[in-house]
Amino acid sequence: MDQRDAILTRLLDLHPKKIDLSLGRTEWLLAEMGHPERRLPPIIHVAGTNGKGSTLAFLRAILEAAGQRVHVYTSPHLLRFNERIRLAGTLVDDARLQKALEDCERANGQRPVTFFEITTVAAFTLFAEEPADWLLLETGLGGRYDSTNVIESPKATIITSISRDHPEFLGDTIEKIAYEKAGIFKRGAPAIIGFQQHDGARDVLEREARRVGAPLSIAGEDFHIREENGRFVYEDERGLLDLPLPRLPGRHQQANAAGAIAALRAVAPHIGAEHIEAGLTRAEWPARLQLLSRGRVADLVPPGSEVWLDGGHNDDGGRVLAEAMAQFEEKNARPLVFVCGAQVTKDIRALIKHFVGLAGEVVAVPVEGEHKSWPPEEIAALACAEGMRSAAAQSVEEALAIIAQRSYAVPPRILIAGSLYLAAGVLALNGSVIE
């Protein structure tokens, strides 16, 4: 274990709970660190259940296409912690990260603080030290009491699609979850409300934005999108943009791209259509319908197979993944095999139901390293109860071996999804690198 990992391990033990939503501990530590949150570049703050990271990926790609220096803060990471902190376009190096963590650890002492809180303070410290034009900031969980919400005056806020997730922290209804997400809205900062599947979520978001005095831009009302002749058309009061389809596949990514465009049209009018076009075609976001065409995973499946990896893990995540697989099927028919693993805190039945009649087989796997993983046998039984062919494997490698032994008329399309932790393990198995 190197020194950086040793510090990260120590920080995990500073609070008895992994999650304890509050702003007080973060505010206290930021004060001890000289208030770096007051020396940050203009911020676009993003919350939501699904699509936050993809929206940030589009924002970053568009801004960088316009020659802007962009900081990015996201979570969780997939392969290494450094992925959470991007300084002016480059992942933070080990030396700078280690120093920031050590400084925060020293300032905090042995006071209770969660891992996310103290590492957020470290990130803000790094962002304040490095000049940039923008900071793209993703909430960790919720919004109102998320550590990132210590910022007072973002340039804009975005709420992506909201669905049921983390009810033990955010509430057991869509309306309660939306209320917590809406906590990032600030007076005077344009609030972009992305496309919502639930009217209750949109109603709460609108109400809260108006209550705090945040100018509203609502998907489907103030900006519209459509796919036409293989192009992505975005339209708002400023006019129409005829754009290429986003590089990130799936129609849900068009909705995420629209939220990013709406925010930039509100606060960065110097960003031109040519920059938006370039950003849409360059955006990258690992483990979000990522095609694994090379590496060990690709070597383990039948020749000619497609392997898609996604971290989708809830009801709405399952819906958009199933819609994407149906799109792929329309363009190029192949048998679909769903390799699925999830934590027991996730509604795996809701995820699987979207693939009834679409996936020919579900192969269940554990999420390795996660003690709260669904047993593969139970996932397989749930799939069987839905009338789907199913099998249980004790690892992704074993699942791919099972698939390799099947007989298919044409090479299959394989979707691996259900957990970002599962996706991380697959990327590690594949020998992938995130830069």
TrEMBL record:
Ranges of residues in domain Mur ligase central: 46-263
Required cofactor(s): Mg(2+)
GO cellular component, one term: cytoplasm
GO BP annotations, alphabetical order: tetrahydrofolate biosynthetic process
Main enzyme class: ligase
EC number assigned by the record: 6.3.2.17
Pfam families: Mur_ligase_M
Protein name as it appears in the record: tetrahydrofolate synthase
Species assigned in the record: Methylosinus sporium
